[in-house]
Specification:
The structure is a single chain. This protein has about 230 residues and is an alpha/beta fold. The protein has a single domain, classed as Rossmann fold, CATH 3.40.50. Helix content is about 35%, strand content about 25%. The protein contains 9 helices and 10 strands. A hairpin with a 2-residue loop joins strand 9 and strand 10. The chain starts with a strand and ends with a helix. The relative contact order is 0.19.
Length: about 230
Amino acid sequence: MSEIVMECKNLCKSYGGKAALTGLDMEISRGRIVGLLGPNGSGKTTLIKIANGLLRPDAGEILIDGGPVGRESKAKVSYLPDCLSLPEWMRVGELIKFYAGFFSDFSEEKARAMLKSLGLEDSARFKSLSKGNKEKVQLILTMSREASLYLLDEPLGGVDPATRDYILGAIIANYSESSSVVISTHLISDVEKVLDEVFFIREGRIFLSDTVDNIRDVRGMSVDALFREEFRC
């Protein structure tokens, strides 16, 4: 098993002539929780969608567990989009069954244990839940897979601080040393406590990467403070 879960080499992507990724290079090692940090329009969501197979790059290469993005890699990647994407009409129990039937690595036991801790019933319709509980259900379904790579695009957006704490706790509790988690977020002060390392992206390129410990010990600042310094308007 390779120690590199995701590798990008000179990755490029444009939309209608406007560059989203411009020669992006990065490596993510196994067993890490990684922050992908940058302002709006920096290329975060584009990169995540390429890694998940929803978009194709115009140039360059991306490898998941040493192989190209395709049918095999999709079985290794668990993706949380930046918006609610579950069918509103389904009940919570039906969503669990849907995921279990669609993903062979999905653990119904793990999903039900986390849902029980929230006091959510199988019979509850997804559309009847609060926004925070909808976010929790979607995250639980994502993290209940035994994937090599978890791609979480803005998992904390639009939810209250208590929900953020639950989401971060679920991320820590449900990933393993054989997998890695990539979190794209603007809420850096909330998420940096769970991160091992960060990649700063600007105009489609990674221009800074470092461990969180090194940022604190050597640079003498928090990740949030470094972000504000690097992206000061």
